[in-house]
Design brief:
This protein is of the alpha/beta class. It has three domains: 4-156, 3-Layer(aba) Sandwich (Alpha-D-Glucose-1,6-Bisphosphate, Chain A, domain 3), CATH 3.40.120.10; 160-262, Alpha-D-Glucose-1,6-Bisphosphate, Chain A, domain 3, CATH 3.40.120; 374-454, Alpha-D-phosphohexomutase, C-terminal domain (TATA-Binding Protein). The chain has 15 helices and 23 strands. Strands 1, 2, 3, 4, 5, 6 and 7 form a seven-stranded mixed β-sheet that branches. Strands 18, 19, 20, 21, 22 and 23 form a six-stranded antiparallel β-sheet that branches. It has a five-stranded mixed β-sheet with strand order 9-8-10-11-12, sandwiched between helices. The longest helix has 17 residues, at 438-454. The protein is globular and about 65 Å long. It starts with 6 loop residues before the first helix and ends with a helix.
Length: 456
Protein backbone atom coordinates (compact mmCIF):
# COMPACT_ATOMS: atom_id res chain seq x y z
CA UNK A 1 0.00 0.00 0.00
CA UNK A 2 1.27 3.46 -0.88
CA UNK A 3 2.10 5.72 2.05
CA UNK A 4 -0.59 8.31 2.74
CA UNK A 5 1.96 11.07 2.15
CA UNK A 6 2.74 9.70 -1.34
CA UNK A 7 -0.60 11.03 -2.59
CA UNK A 8 1.01 14.44 -3.08
CA UNK A 9 3.16 12.97 -5.86
CA UNK A 10 0.29 11.56 -7.91
CA UNK A 11 -2.27 14.35 -7.56
CA UNK A 12 -1.43 16.79 -10.35
CA UNK A 13 -2.97 20.14 -11.29
CA UNK A 14 -5.81 18.57 -13.31
CA UNK A 15 -5.75 14.82 -12.70
CA UNK A 16 -4.21 11.87 -10.86
CA UNK A 17 -1.27 10.15 -12.50
CA UNK A 18 1.55 7.84 -11.42
CA UNK A 19 3.43 4.58 -11.79
CA UNK A 20 1.29 1.46 -11.40
CA UNK A 21 2.28 -0.59 -8.39
CA UNK A 22 4.65 1.79 -6.66
CA UNK A 23 2.34 4.83 -6.73
CA UNK A 24 -1.03 3.50 -7.90
CA UNK A 25 -2.01 0.23 -6.24
CA UNK A 26 -5.36 -1.29 -5.25
CA UNK A 27 -5.41 0.16 -1.74
CA UNK A 28 -4.55 3.66 -2.91
CA UNK A 29 -7.08 3.63 -5.71
CA UNK A 30 -9.76 2.18 -3.42
CA UNK A 31 -9.18 5.12 -1.05
CA UNK A 32 -9.33 7.58 -3.94
CA UNK A 33 -12.62 5.97 -5.03
CA UNK A 34 -14.15 6.47 -1.60
CA UNK A 35 -12.89 10.05 -1.46
CA UNK A 36 -14.17 10.82 -4.96
CA UNK A 37 -17.63 9.54 -4.09
CA UNK A 38 -17.77 11.70 -0.97
CA UNK A 39 -16.44 14.87 -2.63
CA UNK A 40 -17.99 14.71 -6.12
CA UNK A 41 -20.97 12.35 -6.15
CA UNK A 42 -23.10 14.25 -3.60
CA UNK A 43 -25.33 11.20 -3.02
CA UNK A 44 -25.67 10.64 -6.77
CA UNK A 45 -24.09 7.98 -8.98
CA UNK A 46 -20.54 7.98 -10.32
CA UNK A 47 -19.76 7.07 -13.95
CA UNK A 48 -16.53 5.10 -14.45
CA UNK A 49 -14.75 4.30 -17.71
CA UNK A 50 -11.26 3.09 -18.64
CA UNK A 51 -8.79 2.85 -21.48
CA UNK A 52 -7.01 -0.21 -22.89
CA UNK A 53 -3.98 -0.30 -20.56
CA UNK A 54 -3.53 -3.73 -18.90
CA UNK A 55 -3.64 -2.07 -15.49
CA UNK A 56 -6.81 -0.08 -16.11
CA UNK A 57 -9.51 -2.67 -15.44
CA UNK A 58 -7.95 -3.97 -12.18
CA UNK A 59 -7.58 -0.40 -10.94
CA UNK A 60 -11.18 0.36 -11.93
CA UNK A 61 -12.38 -2.63 -9.89
CA UNK A 62 -10.50 -1.34 -6.84
CA UNK A 63 -11.84 2.17 -7.38
CA UNK A 64 -15.42 0.89 -7.70
CA UNK A 65 -14.99 -1.02 -4.43
CA UNK A 66 -14.07 2.23 -2.73
CA UNK A 67 -16.98 4.11 -4.29
CA UNK A 68 -19.61 1.53 -3.41
CA UNK A 69 -18.27 1.25 0.15
CA UNK A 70 -19.59 4.78 0.70
CA UNK A 71 -23.07 3.72 -0.45
CA UNK A 72 -22.65 5.44 -3.82
CA UNK A 73 -23.91 3.73 -6.99
CA UNK A 74 -21.64 3.22 -10.00
CA UNK A 75 -22.43 3.31 -13.72
CA UNK A 76 -19.66 1.25 -15.33
CA UNK A 77 -19.28 2.11 -19.04
CA UNK A 78 -16.23 -0.12 -19.55
CA UNK A 79 -13.83 0.68 -22.38
CA UNK A 80 -14.12 4.34 -23.32
CA UNK A 81 -12.30 7.33 -24.70
CA UNK A 82 -12.06 10.28 -22.33
CA UNK A 83 -14.56 12.30 -24.38
CA UNK A 84 -16.96 9.36 -24.20
CA UNK A 85 -16.68 9.43 -20.40
CA UNK A 86 -17.47 13.17 -20.42
CA UNK A 87 -20.48 12.48 -22.64
CA UNK A 88 -21.71 9.82 -20.21
CA UNK A 89 -21.24 12.23 -17.30
CA UNK A 90 -23.49 14.67 -19.11
CA UNK A 91 -26.05 12.13 -20.22
CA UNK A 92 -26.43 10.59 -16.77
CA UNK A 93 -25.90 13.88 -14.92
CA UNK A 94 -23.36 12.13 -12.73
CA UNK A 95 -19.78 12.73 -11.66
CA UNK A 96 -17.23 10.80 -13.69
CA UNK A 97 -13.88 9.03 -13.39
CA UNK A 98 -11.84 8.04 -16.43
CA UNK A 99 -8.89 5.68 -15.92
CA UNK A 100 -6.17 6.60 -18.39
CA UNK A 101 -2.64 7.96 -18.54
CA UNK A 102 -3.33 9.37 -22.01
CA UNK A 103 -0.04 9.39 -23.94
CA UNK A 104 2.23 8.36 -21.04
CA UNK A 105 4.25 5.08 -21.23
CA UNK A 106 2.61 1.75 -20.30
CA UNK A 107 3.99 1.76 -16.76
CA UNK A 108 1.75 4.72 -15.91
CA UNK A 109 -1.95 5.08 -15.28
CA UNK A 110 -4.17 7.79 -13.90
CA UNK A 111 -7.64 9.16 -13.27
CA UNK A 112 -9.36 12.13 -14.92
CA UNK A 113 -12.29 13.33 -12.84
CA UNK A 114 -15.30 15.54 -13.46
CA UNK A 115 -18.41 16.63 -11.63
CA UNK A 116 -21.92 15.88 -12.88
CA UNK A 117 -22.54 17.30 -16.34
CA UNK A 118 -18.85 16.92 -17.26
CA UNK A 119 -17.89 19.96 -15.19
CA UNK A 120 -14.10 20.12 -14.79
CA UNK A 121 -12.25 19.31 -11.60
CA UNK A 122 -8.82 20.75 -10.83
CA UNK A 123 -6.68 21.11 -7.73
CA UNK A 124 -8.57 24.29 -6.83
CA UNK A 125 -12.03 22.85 -7.47
CA UNK A 126 -12.05 19.45 -5.80
CA UNK A 127 -8.84 17.50 -6.44
CA UNK A 128 -7.16 18.78 -3.29
CA UNK A 129 -10.22 17.79 -1.26
CA UNK A 130 -10.19 14.31 -2.79
CA UNK A 131 -6.48 13.94 -2.06
CA UNK A 132 -6.91 14.99 1.55
CA UNK A 133 -9.93 12.72 2.08
CA UNK A 134 -8.10 9.79 0.45
CA UNK A 135 -5.22 10.36 2.86
CA UNK A 136 -7.68 10.05 5.74
CA UNK A 137 -9.14 6.84 4.31
CA UNK A 138 -5.67 5.30 3.91
CA UNK A 139 -4.86 6.16 7.49
CA UNK A 140 -8.19 4.96 8.89
CA UNK A 141 -10.18 2.80 6.43
CA UNK A 142 -13.92 3.29 6.17
CA UNK A 143 -16.04 1.55 8.76
CA UNK A 144 -19.63 1.19 7.59
CA UNK A 145 -21.05 -1.61 9.69
CA UNK A 146 -24.56 -2.36 8.52
CA UNK A 147 -24.45 0.32 5.85
CA UNK A 148 -25.86 -0.48 2.41
CA UNK A 149 -23.23 -0.70 -0.30
CA UNK A 150 -23.75 1.11 -3.55
CA UNK A 151 -24.92 -0.82 -6.60
CA UNK A 152 -23.08 -1.25 -9.89
CA UNK A 153 -24.77 -1.29 -13.26
CA UNK A 154 -23.13 -1.52 -16.68
CA UNK A 155 -24.07 0.68 -19.63
CA UNK A 156 -23.00 0.39 -23.28
CA UNK A 157 -22.60 4.08 -24.10
CA UNK A 158 -20.68 3.75 -27.39
CA UNK A 159 -23.71 3.63 -29.76
CA UNK A 160 -25.26 6.70 -28.11
CA UNK A 161 -21.95 8.54 -28.14
CA UNK A 162 -21.40 7.77 -31.82
CA UNK A 163 -24.89 9.03 -32.70
CA UNK A 164 -24.24 12.17 -30.65
CA UNK A 165 -20.95 12.88 -32.46
CA UNK A 166 -22.66 12.62 -35.84
CA UNK A 167 -25.10 15.41 -34.89
CA UNK A 168 -22.28 17.94 -35.35
CA UNK A 169 -22.26 17.56 -39.14
CA UNK A 170 -24.82 17.47 -41.97
CA UNK A 171 -24.93 13.74 -42.63
CA UNK A 172 -27.01 14.09 -45.79
CA UNK A 173 -24.44 16.39 -47.38
CA UNK A 174 -21.31 14.33 -46.62
CA UNK A 175 -19.29 13.20 -49.61
CA UNK A 176 -16.83 10.29 -49.90
CA UNK A 177 -13.32 10.81 -48.51
CA UNK A 178 -10.53 8.28 -48.12
CA UNK A 179 -8.16 8.98 -45.25
CA UNK A 180 -5.67 7.31 -42.95
CA UNK A 181 -6.18 7.19 -39.18
CA UNK A 182 -3.46 6.24 -36.71
CA UNK A 183 -5.09 5.15 -33.46
CA UNK A 184 -1.74 4.37 -31.84
CA UNK A 185 -3.27 1.19 -30.32
CA UNK A 186 -5.34 3.55 -28.19
CA UNK A 187 -9.02 4.22 -27.70
CA UNK A 188 -9.54 5.75 -31.13
CA UNK A 189 -9.45 2.15 -32.35
CA UNK A 190 -12.61 1.60 -30.30
CA UNK A 191 -14.42 4.84 -31.09
CA UNK A 192 -13.61 5.73 -34.72
CA UNK A 193 -15.23 2.60 -36.28
CA UNK A 194 -18.44 3.24 -34.34
CA UNK A 195 -18.63 6.93 -35.32
CA UNK A 196 -17.74 6.35 -38.99
CA UNK A 197 -20.11 3.42 -39.46
CA UNK A 198 -22.36 4.05 -42.49
CA UNK A 199 -20.59 7.35 -43.27
CA UNK A 200 -19.04 7.78 -46.74
CA UNK A 201 -15.48 7.66 -45.40
CA UNK A 202 -13.02 4.93 -46.27
CA UNK A 203 -10.46 4.60 -43.49
CA UNK A 204 -6.99 3.16 -43.89
CA UNK A 205 -6.51 1.89 -40.34
CA UNK A 206 -3.18 2.07 -38.57
CA UNK A 207 -2.84 0.34 -35.20
CA UNK A 208 -6.53 0.06 -34.31
CA UNK A 209 -5.89 -2.98 -32.10
CA UNK A 210 -6.38 -1.96 -28.46
CA UNK A 211 -3.04 -2.59 -26.78
CA UNK A 212 -1.90 -0.52 -23.82
CA UNK A 213 1.67 -1.75 -24.18
CA UNK A 214 1.88 0.41 -27.34
CA UNK A 215 3.80 -2.11 -29.48
CA UNK A 216 4.10 0.16 -32.54
CA UNK A 217 4.80 3.61 -31.15
CA UNK A 218 3.74 5.74 -28.16
CA UNK A 219 0.24 7.18 -28.53
CA UNK A 220 1.56 10.73 -28.45
CA UNK A 221 1.12 12.55 -31.78
CA UNK A 222 2.90 15.62 -30.40
CA UNK A 223 6.22 13.82 -30.92
CA UNK A 224 7.19 13.90 -34.63
CA UNK A 225 8.60 10.36 -34.61
CA UNK A 226 5.15 9.01 -33.74
CA UNK A 227 3.66 10.43 -36.94
CA UNK A 228 6.13 8.80 -39.33
CA UNK A 229 3.94 5.80 -40.22
CA UNK A 230 0.86 7.96 -40.79
CA UNK A 231 2.82 10.36 -42.97
CA UNK A 232 4.24 7.51 -45.05
CA UNK A 233 0.83 5.95 -45.69
CA UNK A 234 -0.74 9.29 -46.63
CA UNK A 235 2.05 10.04 -49.12
CA UNK A 236 2.28 6.55 -50.60
CA UNK A 237 -1.47 6.21 -51.12
CA UNK A 238 -2.05 9.79 -52.25
CA UNK A 239 -4.61 10.51 -49.53
CA UNK A 240 -6.02 14.00 -48.88
CA UNK A 241 -5.28 13.83 -45.15
CA UNK A 242 -4.45 11.66 -42.17
CA UNK A 243 -5.60 11.84 -38.56
CA UNK A 244 -3.82 10.78 -35.36
CA UNK A 245 -5.22 10.47 -31.84
CA UNK A 246 -3.54 10.23 -28.46
CA UNK A 247 -4.03 7.24 -26.15
CA UNK A 248 -7.37 8.25 -24.66
CA UNK A 249 -8.52 9.83 -27.95
CA UNK A 250 -9.50 13.20 -26.55
CA UNK A 251 -6.92 14.99 -28.72
CA UNK A 252 -6.78 14.89 -32.52
CA UNK A 253 -3.98 15.91 -34.86
CA UNK A 254 -3.94 16.03 -38.65
CA UNK A 255 -1.41 15.79 -41.47
CA UNK A 256 -2.08 17.07 -44.96
CA UNK A 257 -1.62 15.23 -48.26
CA UNK A 258 2.11 15.96 -48.15
CA UNK A 259 2.38 14.38 -44.71
CA UNK A 260 3.02 17.75 -43.07
CA UNK A 261 1.56 18.30 -39.62
CA UNK A 262 -1.21 20.91 -39.69
CA UNK A 263 -1.05 23.23 -36.65
CA UNK A 264 -3.96 22.77 -34.28
CA UNK A 265 -4.72 26.49 -34.56
CA UNK A 266 -5.53 26.05 -38.25
CA UNK A 267 -7.86 23.16 -37.47
CA UNK A 268 -9.49 25.37 -34.84
CA UNK A 269 -10.00 28.11 -37.43
CA UNK A 270 -11.63 25.67 -39.88
CA UNK A 271 -13.97 24.30 -37.21
CA UNK A 272 -14.83 27.80 -35.93
CA UNK A 273 -15.63 29.00 -39.44
CA UNK A 274 -17.97 26.07 -40.09
CA UNK A 275 -19.74 26.35 -36.75
CA UNK A 276 -20.33 30.07 -37.26
CA UNK A 277 -21.74 29.43 -40.73
CA UNK A 278 -24.34 27.17 -39.11
CA UNK A 279 -24.77 29.29 -35.96
CA UNK A 280 -24.19 32.95 -36.88
CA UNK A 281 -23.09 35.46 -34.27
CA UNK A 282 -22.05 32.98 -31.59
CA UNK A 283 -19.13 33.37 -29.20
CA UNK A 284 -16.01 31.22 -29.65
CA UNK A 285 -13.09 30.91 -27.24
CA UNK A 286 -9.42 30.44 -28.03
CA UNK A 287 -6.52 30.17 -25.63
CA UNK A 288 -3.83 32.80 -25.72
CA UNK A 289 -1.20 30.71 -27.49
CA UNK A 290 -3.46 29.99 -30.47
CA UNK A 291 -2.49 31.66 -33.72
CA UNK A 292 -3.93 35.13 -34.26
CA UNK A 293 -5.55 33.57 -37.34
CA UNK A 294 -8.12 32.04 -34.96
CA UNK A 295 -9.64 35.27 -33.55
CA UNK A 296 -9.34 36.90 -36.97
CA UNK A 297 -11.36 34.07 -38.49
CA UNK A 298 -13.99 34.26 -35.75
CA UNK A 299 -14.45 38.02 -36.13
CA UNK A 300 -14.49 37.84 -39.96
CA UNK A 301 -17.25 35.22 -39.77
CA UNK A 302 -19.37 37.48 -37.58
CA UNK A 303 -18.67 35.75 -34.28
CA UNK A 304 -17.32 37.07 -31.01
CA UNK A 305 -13.78 35.95 -30.17
CA UNK A 306 -12.90 35.63 -26.47
CA UNK A 307 -9.36 34.87 -25.32
CA UNK A 308 -8.76 32.51 -22.36
CA UNK A 309 -5.91 31.19 -20.29
CA UNK A 310 -4.28 27.87 -21.16
CA UNK A 311 -5.90 24.86 -19.46
CA UNK A 312 -9.15 22.94 -19.77
CA UNK A 313 -10.60 24.11 -16.46
CA UNK A 314 -10.24 27.75 -17.51
CA UNK A 315 -11.73 27.30 -20.96
CA UNK A 316 -14.67 25.24 -19.69
CA UNK A 317 -15.41 27.86 -17.03
CA UNK A 318 -15.37 30.64 -19.62
CA UNK A 319 -17.63 28.61 -21.88
CA UNK A 320 -20.14 28.40 -19.05
CA UNK A 321 -19.85 32.16 -18.42
CA UNK A 322 -20.12 33.25 -22.04
CA UNK A 323 -22.31 30.55 -23.59
CA UNK A 324 -19.61 30.03 -26.22
CA UNK A 325 -20.45 27.44 -28.84
CA UNK A 326 -16.82 26.29 -29.30
CA UNK A 327 -13.44 26.62 -27.65
CA UNK A 328 -9.97 25.71 -28.90
CA UNK A 329 -6.57 25.10 -27.40
CA UNK A 330 -3.39 25.00 -29.44
CA UNK A 331 -2.54 21.68 -27.76
CA UNK A 332 -5.17 19.85 -29.84
CA UNK A 333 -8.13 20.05 -27.44
CA UNK A 334 -11.44 21.22 -28.96
CA UNK A 335 -14.44 22.00 -26.77
CA UNK A 336 -18.08 22.03 -27.86
CA UNK A 337 -20.98 23.63 -25.99
CA UNK A 338 -23.37 20.99 -27.24
CA UNK A 339 -21.02 18.30 -25.91
CA UNK A 340 -21.55 19.43 -22.32
CA UNK A 341 -18.77 21.98 -22.95
CA UNK A 342 -16.30 19.09 -22.94
CA UNK A 343 -13.45 18.51 -25.37
CA UNK A 344 -13.67 15.85 -28.05
CA UNK A 345 -11.10 14.78 -30.60
CA UNK A 346 -13.58 12.77 -32.66
CA UNK A 347 -16.10 15.63 -32.97
CA UNK A 348 -13.36 17.94 -34.22
CA UNK A 349 -12.20 15.23 -36.63
CA UNK A 350 -15.68 14.81 -38.08
CA UNK A 351 -16.17 18.56 -38.61
CA UNK A 352 -12.74 18.74 -40.29
CA UNK A 353 -13.64 15.82 -42.54
CA UNK A 354 -16.89 17.55 -43.48
CA UNK A 355 -14.83 20.59 -44.56
CA UNK A 356 -12.51 18.43 -46.69
CA UNK A 357 -15.50 16.63 -48.23
CA UNK A 358 -17.26 19.92 -49.04
CA UNK A 359 -14.12 21.39 -50.61
CA UNK A 360 -13.38 18.30 -52.65
CA UNK A 361 -9.75 19.20 -52.06
CA UNK A 362 -6.85 17.96 -49.93
CA UNK A 363 -6.34 19.32 -46.44
CA UNK A 364 -3.57 21.78 -47.36
CA UNK A 365 -6.00 23.63 -49.62
CA UNK A 366 -8.71 23.63 -46.94
CA UNK A 367 -6.44 25.26 -44.36
CA UNK A 368 -4.60 27.58 -46.77
CA UNK A 369 -6.92 30.58 -46.25
CA UNK A 370 -6.14 30.50 -42.53
CA UNK A 371 -2.39 29.88 -42.83
CA UNK A 372 -1.22 33.49 -42.42
CA UNK A 373 1.53 33.38 -39.80
CA UNK A 374 4.62 31.45 -38.75
CA UNK A 375 4.82 30.01 -35.23
CA UNK A 376 7.80 28.88 -33.19
CA UNK A 377 6.15 25.97 -31.46
CA UNK A 378 6.45 25.76 -27.69
CA UNK A 379 9.96 26.18 -26.28
CA UNK A 380 10.77 25.30 -22.66
CA UNK A 381 13.42 26.97 -20.50
CA UNK A 382 14.62 25.69 -17.13
CA UNK A 383 15.10 28.71 -14.89
CA UNK A 384 16.06 29.11 -11.26
CA UNK A 385 13.69 32.02 -10.63
CA UNK A 386 10.60 32.06 -12.85
CA UNK A 387 9.22 35.45 -11.65
CA UNK A 388 12.63 37.13 -12.04
CA UNK A 389 13.12 35.81 -15.57
CA UNK A 390 9.62 36.91 -16.54
CA UNK A 391 10.21 40.36 -15.06
CA UNK A 392 13.46 40.68 -17.04
CA UNK A 393 11.62 39.97 -20.30
CA UNK A 394 8.80 42.37 -19.39
CA UNK A 395 11.35 45.12 -18.76
CA UNK A 396 13.22 44.43 -21.99
CA UNK A 397 10.00 44.71 -24.01
CA UNK A 398 8.32 47.47 -21.99
CA UNK A 399 8.39 49.96 -24.86
CA UNK A 400 7.94 47.51 -27.72
CA UNK A 401 4.16 47.13 -27.76
CA UNK A 402 1.05 46.24 -25.79
CA UNK A 403 1.35 43.63 -23.05
CA UNK A 404 -0.82 41.84 -20.50
CA UNK A 405 -0.45 39.31 -17.68
CA UNK A 406 -3.58 37.20 -18.18
CA UNK A 407 -1.51 34.01 -18.26
CA UNK A 408 2.20 34.72 -17.88
CA UNK A 409 3.39 37.59 -20.07
CA UNK A 410 1.99 38.31 -23.53
CA UNK A 411 3.57 41.06 -25.64
CA UNK A 412 2.35 42.20 -29.04
CA UNK A 413 5.04 43.96 -31.08
CA UNK A 414 5.19 45.29 -34.61
CA UNK A 415 7.19 42.19 -35.58
CA UNK A 416 4.84 39.62 -34.01
CA UNK A 417 3.73 38.49 -30.55
CA UNK A 418 4.92 36.15 -27.85
CA UNK A 419 3.64 34.55 -24.68
CA UNK A 420 5.94 33.53 -21.85
CA UNK A 421 4.19 31.60 -19.09
CA UNK A 422 5.22 29.34 -16.20
CA UNK A 423 4.55 25.63 -16.15
CA UNK A 424 1.95 24.46 -13.62
CA UNK A 425 4.10 21.56 -12.46
CA UNK A 426 7.79 22.26 -13.23
CA UNK A 427 10.32 25.12 -12.81
CA UNK A 428 9.94 25.94 -16.48
CA UNK A 429 9.03 28.92 -18.61
CA UNK A 430 7.16 28.07 -21.80
CA UNK A 431 7.62 30.38 -24.79
CA UNK A 432 5.37 30.67 -27.85
CA UNK A 433 6.14 33.16 -30.62
CA UNK A 434 4.28 34.03 -33.82
CA UNK A 435 5.25 36.40 -36.61
CA UNK A 436 4.10 37.42 -40.10
CA UNK A 437 7.02 35.51 -41.66
CA UNK A 438 9.79 33.19 -40.54
CA UNK A 439 12.62 35.74 -40.28
CA UNK A 440 10.48 38.06 -38.13
CA UNK A 441 9.38 35.21 -35.89
CA UNK A 442 12.90 33.88 -35.48
CA UNK A 443 14.35 37.29 -34.58
CA UNK A 444 11.67 37.83 -31.94
CA UNK A 445 12.03 34.26 -30.63
CA UNK A 446 15.79 34.55 -30.33
CA UNK A 447 15.61 37.92 -28.58
CA UNK A 448 13.15 36.65 -25.96
CA UNK A 449 15.14 33.43 -25.48
CA UNK A 450 18.37 35.36 -24.99
CA UNK A 451 16.74 37.57 -22.38
CA UNK A 452 15.42 34.54 -20.48
CA UNK A 453 18.85 32.87 -20.52
CA UNK A 454 20.59 36.05 -19.41
CA UNK A 455 18.23 36.20 -16.43
CA UNK A 456 19.40 32.73 -15.39
Amino acid sequence: MADAGALDAIFKAYDVRGLVGSQLDDDTVRAIGAATAEVLADAGALVVGHDMRPSSRPLVDAFIAGVTATGTDVIDIGLASTDMLYFASGEFDAAGAMFTASHNPPAYNGIKLCRAGAQPVSMDTGLADIRDRARDVLSAPLARDGATAGEVRTEDVLPRFAAHVRTFVDLAALRPVTLAVDAGNGMAGHVVPAVFEDLPFEVVELYFELDGTFPNHPANPLEPENLVDLQRVVREQGLPLGLAFDGDADRMFAVDEHGDLVPSSLIAAVVADRLLAAHPGETILYNLICSHAVPETIEAAGGTAVRTRVGHSFIKARMAETGAIFGAEHSGHYYFRDNYRADSGIIAALVLLEAVADAGAPLSEVVAPYDRYVASGELNFEVADVPAATAAVAEAFADRGESDREDGLTVRTAAGWFNLRPSNTEPLLRLNVEGPDRPSMERLRDEVAATVRAAG
